[in-house]
Design brief:
By secondary structure, this protein is mainly α. The chain has 3 helices and 2 strands; from the N terminus they run αββαα. It has a two-stranded antiparallel ribbon with strand order 1-2.
């Protein structure tokens, strides 16, 4: 996970760990991770065009945003944990790799 790990930001490690345990199977960060769902950092980070509130709401209920979404609702993470993931996503926006 060298291109996705927050080496310079220990306060983001928990968010990265939550992302890698719950999201990276389908989503990628800097081309690290799954290919079934959108890349979250390149060419534009998801936090550059979605609000934190909408990212969390989408994660909890994808079908309320996109009909026929294949993403299952994220019901096992707390709001605090989801906020840590979003914080990590905001951090990684400034650490993009080249395409």
């Amino acid at each position: 996970y060298k291109d996705a790990y927050p080496f310079a930001a220990p306060e983001q490690v928990e968010g990265f760990q939550l992302f890698s345990q719950n999201c990276i199977k389908c989503h990628s960060i800097n081309k690290t991770g799954g290919t079934m769902a959108p890349e979250f950092n390149i060419p534009r980070n998801i936090t550059e065009y979605w609000t934190a509130e909408n990212i969390i709401a989408f994660a909890k209920s994808p079908q309320s945003f996109r009909i026929n979404s294949t993403m299952p609702p994220v019901t096992h993470l707390s709001d605090n944990e989801l906020n840590k993931i979003v914080s990590y996503l905001k951090y990684i926006a400034n650490h993009k790799i080249e395409l």
